[in-house]
Design brief:
The chain is of the alpha/beta class. The chain is 41% helix and 14% strand.
Length: 721
């Protein structure tokens, strides 16, 4: 069976010598290969930047003269040949980690379902960390040769673009995506027509088309309800990520779970493992059971036969964070399903019935946990929290024996690490270091990197960040009609030589973005110290329906724009993967202030760490595992206070004191060449302790060895190849 189900279009007017650039544009492999990206940027960097790093549009607009010039440039041709030699070797590789270590996975695909996938800024079908993690999971699976298939949605409006008003209020702009300009290919059937699957609602049928995204060796299939047979209302079901009204939300999740299974069947797949990245896809459990019931099994038999193949990853440390639907709503949209399962209404409800303060609910987390054999949280602390939170599902067990393990999240190293740093590691860690990046012993060689060389790279990355911010502001000033106050507040005055702290994430209230603003006068004194300036860059979005989150953005922004800050407090609007890349590569310190233990894992700090930044965070999620006293700083204590107000006050005091007495003095302790040697000692320790441990290389291997291989012990129930 071929990896991909689509054929590449022949829509670019390319010179014969560069004829494969179109093939590269349609495979996101280029996004984590800096040399591959240079094939586009070197031709016309201004156009590349203006088009937001979109290779499809770039090849459509760059023009024949530029293409012809590149085809005659020997240096460019050499780069082209090197890139495609590497691409062909990668795509045709047979001796992958998976084939060498777990040959039993050969021909036994793993289906990975997620509501969102953060792959690249040109595909805005993600909202935050969950999606970016899913994107990194696919990229690492490709690198390891894992036979994984992604399933999600193609959102016609993408996720919203953020604009911040002069008063700091978030405005959400939804723009229709032009699929002709995206690396997405429609899946066709044997007759050349759009391949579609159907999902039944009690009063109608919804049709779903499929799009294929190529992520290295991994196919990602995205469901799309924007088809003519559907009503205008049903066409909107896949228009937007995370609809706030419950009706659309439950319909959307039904399409993902049921429609996703049917899509894979229509494509000829019979997965051996079904991985639900959060509970949004849990309805796949019911669809897989329905297949077996239709073949003559009882519902209980069907669940028993499929449970062992199901893997569920929870990212949510509070019950209310899991999708819960009122029983009447479930009846409204799923009443056609329980007869197909040979269940009564009450029996169907009992599958996922869950008592909540607002009454009996149908819990997607409950559905997944009861009917998956593999279950995990995403950090050690989150595993503990999850076992406590879901203990009621296993009342006969002690809390520590609740069958929910943990696999701490990681990040895809080559996707997030700056090219200058990769080149430095090539020199001092060996050309093959990427093949061994999850081996701790390799990273001892970081100590061999001369301080001045590492400092020079870090200084370059910070200058790159400040220049990017200035150009970004310039664009909004000339095109977007920025108020002068917004120009200053958006980073035009950033100093490339000042200690720079980054805070960028989803603006949910539990993340406490305003903690650093608890005592504004003290903060102003900190950031405006003579000869030791400090600047803090904020970025992030709140869900359009999250009024407290939008109010938090406004609160932060109103402090940012005060004249007394001198432009040293900055809020950058429209946080996306591209901006995230500049921030995690360019800041000196990454700050994270969640209310413990609400941050299940967090991955932004990992991305900063692998670029040499130091973390300054509450001991929650991944940082609780990473912190060793020499690779960054904690905020507050390793415990939870009974009172949130007491917790906030103590954490704010810890934050300010650590900044004043430890972080700032260490950063500005320089030699005669203006190099902070002791700071570099901490940087090296951060790299050594974080890169191998918090990479998706380690993470995906853990999923394989602890959950996926175990699931293979269950024979495939559907009997299809």
């Amino acid at each position: 069976m071929d990896t991909f189900r689509t054929h590449l279009p022949d829509g670019f007017d390319l010179p014969k010598r560069l004829s494969r650039l179109g093939e590269l544009a349609y495979n996101l492999w280029w996004t984590w290969q800096p040399d591959a990206a240079r094939l586009f940027s070197r031709m016309d960097n201004n156009l590349w930047e203006r088009l937001g790093h979109n290779p499809i549009r770039f090849l459509q607009e760059v023009g024949r003269p530029r293409l012809s010039q590149a085809s005659k440039d020997q240096e460019y041709r050499d780069l082209y040949d090197r890139v495609f030699a590497r691409f062909d070797s990668y795509m045709n590789q047979t001796d992958t980690w998976t084939s060498q270590t777990h040959p039993e996975l050969t021909g036994r695909p793993i289906a990975y379902f997620s509501m969102e996938f953060g792959l690249h800024e040109t595909l805005p079908i993600y909202s935050g960390g969950l999606g970016v993690l899913a994107g990194d999971h696919l990229k690492e699976s490709s690198d390891l040769g894992l036979p994984l298939i992604g399933v999600g949605f193609m959102y016609a409006q993408g996720y919203f673009s953020q604009r911040i008003s002069e008063d700091g209020w978030q405005e959400a702009l939804n723009n229709m995506l032009d699929f002709n300009n995206l690396p997405a290919l429609p899946v066709l059937d044997d007759s050349g027509e759009r391949l579609c699957v159907e999902v039944e609602f009690p009063d109608r049928i919804v049709s779903l088309g499929l799009w294929e995204i190529r992520v290295g060796r991994i196919p990602l299939y995205l469901l799309d309800s924007n088809l003519d047979p559907n009503t205008d209302s049903d066409k909107q079901l896949t228009a937007r990520l995370y609809w706030s009204d419950l009706d659309r939300r439950v319909m959307q999740e039904l399409l993902l779970g049921v429609g996703g299974v049917r899509a894979l069947r229509a494509l000829g797949y019979n997965p051996s493992v079904w991985h639900m990245n959060e509970g949004h896809a849990a309805f796949l459990i019911l669809e897989r059971a329905r297949e077996l019931v239709a073949a003559g099994h009882t519902f209980e038999e069907a669940i028993e036969k499929t449970r062992g193949q199901n893997v569920f990853t929870t990212h949510t440390p509070v019950p209310a964070g899991n999708d819960e639907f009122p029983l009447w709503l479930i009846e409204k949209y799923l009443s056609a399903i329980w007869p197909q399962l040979n269940l009564t209404r009450e029996q169907f409800f009992d599958v996922a019935r869950h008592q909540m303060p607002q009454g009996e609910m149908y819990g997607m987390g409950v559905l997944a946990l009861r009917n998956a054999e593999g279950r995990n949280g995403v950090s050690a602390l989150h595993g503990q929290v999850a076992r406590k939170m879901w203990h009621f599902l296993w009342p006969e067990k002690a809390e520590e024996d609740v069958p929910i393990t943990h696999i701490t999240n990681g990040v895809h190293v080559t996707n997030w690490m700056a090219r200058r740093l990769v080149n430095l590691f090539d020199e001092y860690l060996g050309k093959d270091w990427l093949e061994h990046l999850d081996e701790p012993d390799l990273w001892k060689n970081v100590d061999d990197i001369p301080d001045d060389e590492l400092w020079a790279v870090r200084s370059h990355l910070k200058r790159k960040l400040t220049f990017y911010m200035r150009e970004r502001v310039r664009d909004r000033w000339t095109v977007g009609g920025f108020h002068p106050v917004q120009v200053v507040s958006s980073g035009v005055l950033l100093n490339p030589y000042a200690l720079t702290i980054g805070f960028a994430r989803r603006f949910a209230t539990y993340k406490r973005a305003s903690l650093v603003l608890t005592d504004v006068e003290r903060l102003l004194d900190i950031i405006n110290r003579p000869n030791m300036p400090v600047q803090i860059v904020f970025a992030g979005k709140a869900h359009p329906a999250d009024e407290p989150g939008k109010q938090l953005i406004q609160q932060v922004y109103r402090q940012v724009k005060r004249a007394e800050t001198g432009g040293r407090l900055v809020f950058v609007e429209d946080y996306d993967i591209n901006l995230a890349r500049y921030l995690v590569q360019g800041v000196d310190v990454w700050m994270n202030t969640p209310r413990r233990p609400m941050e299940a894992s967090g991955t932004s700090g990992m991305k900063a760490a692998l670029n040499g930044a130091l973390n300054f965070s509450v001991l929650d999620g991944w940082w609780r595992e990473s912190y060793n006293g020499r690779n960054g700083w904690p905020i507050g204590e390793d415990r939870e206070m009974e009172s949130q107000s007491v917790q906030d006050a103590q954490d704010a005091e810890s934050l300010y004191t650590t900044l004043e007495k430890e972080i700032i003095p260490l950063y500005y302790d320089r030699d005669e060449r203006d190099i902070a040697h002791e700071w570099i000692v901490w940087m090296k320790e951060s790299l050594k302790s974080n890169v191998p441990q918090f990479s998706t290389r380690r993470m995906v291997k853990e999923y394989v060895e602890r959950l996926y291989v175990k699931a293979l012990g269950t024979p495939s129930p559907a009997g299809r190849g």
